[in-house]
Amino acid sequence: MYNRSLFIKNLMYKKFKINVSEINLNTNLTLLKEHHSWLKDLNSQSLQQANRNLLTGFKNFFEGRGSYPTKKRKKNNNYSFQVPQNYQINLTSSKIYLPKIGWIKIVLHRDFLDKEFIENNLVTKGVNGEVILDQKLNRKFNILKTLTVSRTSAGRYHISLLIDDHVPEPKLVEFDSETTVGIDVGIKSFAVLSTGEVIENPKFLKKSLMKLKKLQRNVSKKQKGSKNRKKAIVKLAKQHQLINNQRNDFQHKVTIRIIRENQAVAVENLNVKGLIKNHKLAQAISDVGWSEFIRKLIYKAEWYGKTILRIGRFDASSKICNVCGYKKDDLTLKIREWECPDCKTFHDRDLNASINIKKIALNNLSTAGTAGRACGLMNISSGNEARSLSVFS
Fold first, then answer.
1. How does residue 162 score in pLDDT terms, banded at 50, 70 and 90?
2. Residue 268: active-site member
3. 46-73: b or e for each residue (b if 16 or more CB lie within 10 Å)?
4. Average predicted confidence (pLDDT) for the chain
5. What are 167-212's pLDDT values in tens digits?
6. Rounded to an integer, what distance in angstroms lies between the CA atom of residue 100 and that of residue 256?
7. Residue boundaries of the structural domains of the chain
8. Which of 268, 287, 292, 302 does the annotation list as catalytic?
9. 323-352 per-position pLDDT tens digit
10. pLDDT band for position 376 (50/70/90)?
């Protein structure tokens, strides 16, 4: 539906300069069901949501927040659909009801709402002694939002539920030099903090390279289109999924600890897309996941009312002595330690950079005032290191 609606919008504008609205696209959906009866077996709201997502993509493009919408392709392995309404959740036996599909057994890995919140703010119904949360009965409260069903390339299914608990965001916590930490991310060490703490790089991808190469060879040896090739592809995808899960778990633990222990965090705005163009470092940069690490820091800072301070990518954080301010212009990537010729201070490259990042960020803040101190005001690119799947593709 997304691709067909995109084709209609492009065609109508190209031929007749007509902007097709969501109502027109949904009307076309009704006519389409008469020619393709199998569309009636699908939830109509999920099909309409595809049109809504397309229009959101166009809105983001015209407002400068995204690229022009393109066709979705099966080879991208991004399979998902959304259910805006009329779903039910069985809180007793861990089941979920999806329109046109029925009840599905699920694993609730955590309580998405407190029992007290459900009792005080939502309506539940009891069926055979089981507590069921029906979205239709709670529509007026505007708490239960869109439900998304997704499938990974390894064949694992997930359901995510968007919830608005109407809890206001916390106020920003006051911070000073003592409660601010600077972070210098790297490849040899995952991150070095201005406090002197060094977080080692786990290198999940590098540790699994031999196994990945073996699985990739098994895929190449199988005949195209055969069942054995499909089985080999699934095994390869599961290994990539494992690496991705390991990296995410590690980053979640590190970011939540940093946010809880500090009132403000200073980081450098890196050009990750530009850095990965260096073929000698591309794999290592993709493995460490800088942009995803910073993204996690930003949204967790918003959760707890903490502040993210950013410095420019061209600020010489590594080349400046944090004691006297001497700038070592001939500092290369190979030099990990150096001595300041002015004050004779011996520096570890990464620790010196993290201290300078903190100093520069606080100095910029005191110079420019507090207008832009709130986390999230400064844009950050998500980079290009999201998945380990891109290594052998």
1. very high
2. yes
3. bbbbbbbbbbebeeeeeeeeeeebeeee
4. 88
5. 888 999 999 999 999 999 999 999 999 999 999 999 999 999 999 9
6. 39
7. 2-68, 82-163, 180-391
8. 268
9. 888 888 888 888 888 899 888 889 888 999
10. very low
Distance CA 218, CA 236 (A): 9
Which class for 343: exposed (0-12), middle (13-18), buried (19 or more C-beta within 10 A)?
exposed
Q: CA end-to-end span of the chain, whole Å?
A: 27
Instruction: Catalytic residue, from 184, 287, 292, 385: name it.
Output: 184
- The active-site residue, picked from 287, 292, 302, 350, is 350
The full 3-state SS of the chain, as one line of letters, equals: CHHHHHHHHHHHHHHHCCCCCHHHHHHHHHHHHHHCHHHHHCCHHHHHHHHHHHHHHHHHHHCCCCCCCCCCCHHHCCEEEEECCCCEEECCCCEEEECCCEEEECCCCCCCCCHHHHHHHCCEEEECCEEEEECCCCHHHCCEEEEEEEECCCCCEEEEEEECCCCCCCCCCCCCCCCEEEEEECCCEEEEECCCCEEECCCHHHHCHHHHHHHHHHHHHCCCCCHHHHHHHHHHHHHHHHHHHHHHHHHHHHHHHHHHHCCEEEEECCCHHHHCCCCCCHHHHHHHCHHHHHHHHHHHHHHHCCEEEEECCCCCCCCECCCCCCECCCCCCCCCEEECCCCCCEEEHHHHHHHHHHHHHHHHHHHHCCCCCCCCCCCCCCCCCCCHHHHCC
Cα–Cα dist 186/372, whole Å: 26
Paired with 147 in beta bridges are: 83, 161
pTM above 0.85, yes or no: no
CB of 62 within 8 A of CB of 69?
Answer: no
User: Phi first, then psi: what are they for 133, rounded to 5°?
Assistant: -100, 110
Looking at residue 354, what is its pLDDT?
A: 93
The pLDDT confidence band at residue 103, using thresholds 50, 70 and 90, is very high
Place of tokens 């998500």: 382
Dihedral, CA of residue 162, residue 60, residue 297 and residue 266, to nearest 10: -150
350 among known catalytic residues = yes
CA–CA separation, 134 vs 97, rounded Å?
A: 9
Is the CB of residue 260 less than 8 Å from the CB of residue 215?
A: no
Question: Do 200 and 188 touch, CB atoms closer than 8 A?
Answer: no
